Amino acid sequence: MSGVHRRNFLTAATAGSLAVPLAGSRSAEAGDESFSNNVPDPLLAGKELPTFKFELEKSEGKVIGGSYGKEATVEQLPISKGIAGVSMRLEPGAMRELHWHATAAEWAFIVEGRVRTTVIDPDGAAETNDFNPGDVWYFPRGHGHMLECLGDRPCHFILIFDNGYFSEFGTFSISDWIGHVPRPLLAKNFGLPESAFEGFPTEEVYFARGKLPPAEPARPLQGWKPPALTHKYELLKRPPNGVFKGGREWRVDSTTFPISRTITGVVFDLEPGGLRELHWHPTADEWQYVIEGELSVTLFGSHGRYRAERLSKGDVGYIPQGYGHSLENVGTKPCRVLIGLNAGVYAKIDLSEWIAGNPLDVLATNFGKPASLFERFPRRDVFIAPNDDAAPARPVGSPDR
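^ thats the sequence. predicted structure below, dont judge the formating
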């Protein structure tokens, strides 16, 4: 347990001072490191499940000029303790200034427009990359970076952080730091006269605005010094992991994008009526952002607790680790959903797959039904079911799931 030793657990609970660890600390005192929910969460211990929906794009956020950042943390969505998310828009010439995140790694998906990033690691290696729609980046916790809009059109991207307590508005920005260091100390640090720092911002800039960046990245002051692992992955330029009658899936985790050690990203396209079947993730929480369409999400939390939420474009959903859930396109148009999981390796168990893994006699005894009924069940996981009630869903092709 993080923050509360096992031997003190009962004492702390009795005293009414149970310490809940910060989500994002994916470690246990012993055993499986992926299991971080080893302290009971009072929010999930009630007779009814709490809401797991937040209308992110309808929130106010932080707006400067034509740029904004809107966040979903435990403050806005209390159930979301393991993952936070941000919707960010940059206008042409705008830059999310040089900054770092002390308590979370950052994963991003480009929805529209083009973005340039620079990032530096503890070894002093720096990388500059240009991103297009469908591309992904990952910055490990504490690595300094910046984000800027490329070209003469705005860009929009979704940021996912592996800590629900993280706040984009409580990050560490370079202007805020330099603006509060005494000039004599700055002069000594950089070997420059104090006058060199006259006119520097005294407060956090957050979104800096200037000329459009050059078409090609400029050479860093230190020269080119690339890192061992790239921070860029072109997710939607690759073939889907699975193509089905009811939709398709793209997925990226550390097995294909090695630097992304704490976050897995998924993009689902669901046709009208398409269903990402009932399943659970044994090693991760799930954060959802609806890019397009209308989605019904269900959540099962044991002891008869069940809840459904309808998510529209710009809404966020959250599923705690190990909780059963499903996603269904309930609109008349295709639906696209971005999903982030706070684990570096993807893992799931589908309900149809679980049933198919048991003998007929076991299923008959469990449900009190004749074995002949289960002869009609799928022989493998359905994964995505189409809008077709006449026949069991069958995957198309040979996806790697």
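The radius of gyration is 23 Å.
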